[in-house]
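agent> fetching stored inputs for the adenosine-5'-diphosphate docking request
agent> found them:
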Amino acid sequence: MRTAYSVETVRAAERELMARLPEGALMQRAAAGLAAACAGRLRRTRGGVYGARVVLLVGPGDNGGDALYAGARLARRGAAVTAVPMDPERTHPGGSAALRAAGGHLARAVPQRADLVLDGLLGIGGRGGLRPAAAALVERIPPGVPVVAVDLPSGVDADTGEVAGPAVTADVTVTFGAYKPGLLIDPGASRAGAVHLVDIGLELPSPQVEALQHADVAGLLPEPTATSDKYRRGVVGIVAGSAQYPGAAVLAVAGALRGGAGAVRYVGPAAEAVLARYPETLIGPGRVQAWVVGPGLGEGRAGEVAELLAGDAAVLVDADGLRGLDAAALRARSAPTLLTPHAGEAAALLGVSRESVEAGRLDAVRMLTQRYGAAVLLKGSTTLVASGGAAVRVNPTGTPWLATAGSGDVLSGLTGSLLAGGLSGADAGAVGAYLHGLAARRVGGPLLAQQVAEALPDAWQDTRHP
Ligand SMILES: NC(=O)C1=CN([C@@H]2O[C@H](COP(=O)(O)OP(=O)(O)OC[C@H]3O[C@@H](n4cnc5c(N)ncnc54)[C@H](O)[C@@H]3O)[C@@H](O)[C@H]2O)[C@@H](O)CC1
Ligand SMILES: Nc1ncnc2c1ncn2[C@@H]1O[C@H](COP(=O)(O)OP(=O)(O)O)[C@@H](O)[C@H]1O
Ligand SMILES: [K+]
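agent> prediction call returned; pasting tokens
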């Protein structure tokens, strides 16, 4: 499991540790890890540190201090290090002195010839969009030169991944003590590049955000045992498709058949299309452990959604099923409930704009789970899964090629199948998104939604091999 912590949590852990260590010790740990990561990068790109031209962008706080001390370490190994302070009056004094003593120097303009740029403008003390002095330095980063962000890319909100205005786009982010949510959630995540964690000895409580990894997923997958039969493995019912959108039914069934349930039942007007493609499908109403309702349903079928929500099986509501959802009916349920909106559907459920959901995905998913009293999977680049007050899960797999018609239908079938296998709403959502994203990566691109469904068994097996 990869875990991420809010600024408040990280600050508290830092205070606690700093009280037990000599002054400046934490910053030295951070700078040592940062310098080692930069040296590794320079070794790969140009064979070594000696003679490398390194530029430090230095902000007014401790983030700038980290960059300066790391720069001093690189200078002692023979790099030509130039620091450009955002505000020469407010630059970490110890860091500046250390850099000078190591042979580095300070400048006002950003040198345009460089082998590496360190972004030490803002770390977890950054607030709101970059102010003009910081933005001006970011604009002057020479194109094509690798950028290492110190703790997080400046301009990214550490707690949410929000990016208000200009921000650094890094090749590598060297983060200290703990991942920050903004490094895992878009738009921030796509600014961070490869994230490298430096242990500085923090002791941390439970995380605010977490990302499953192969072993976590493998541990949650419902696998048959010697005593299994198809009913014990769970039956998933799919209520999807319409005369207008029969394909959504076929694709949801395609996902459901690969999600580990013992049987897939289909209820709706696209039975012929479903059977033609998947003769394994049971047709017509019957008992199930979990329902998937919504893909390609079209308008005027809210009654079917309400009926399923009034029952005692688990329910996943997707796409057209999400229209006009009754929050009170959802809150009254005791069986697992999972909503799987994309940003547009989430916006309608919250009564806000799609843009605000996309800019603040973490807030949006938390609000949805609170308002509807259900687990929520918010689709998109970096899919999020929230339920109750637990850590929000961010999906680390996937590819932008998934932004293609029908891939969401495969996801809802797959995830419903996992619900039928006994997983909770949050676990089914996180595991479903993980496998779906892994399958899509296996296919590559451009991809068809049905290819994602076909790659699911291989993705399932992949999770067993770290
Ligand atoms: N506290 C600790 O124990 C450790 C902190 N470390 C480093 O310290 C950083 C946090 O340092 P600080 O708390 O000094 O905060 P920062 O260095 O992140 O930034 C604070 C400064 O930036 C200015 N600022 C804030 N938002 C701005 C914006 N949008 N545009 C322009 N200027 C802005 C503030 O006025 C303040 O002067 C961490 O990210 C990490 O790099 C590391 O040395 C590890 C140990
Ligand atoms: N930019 C993106 N990067 C990664 N995955 C994406 C991106 N955009 C969409 N996706 C994924 O693609 C799928 C699309 O689902 P959805 O929006 O419901 O489409 P549809 O209803 O057409 O199938 C979801 O799994 C979503 O997370
Ligand atoms: K930074």
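agent> quick read of the result: The mean pLDDT is 97.
agent> awaiting further instructions
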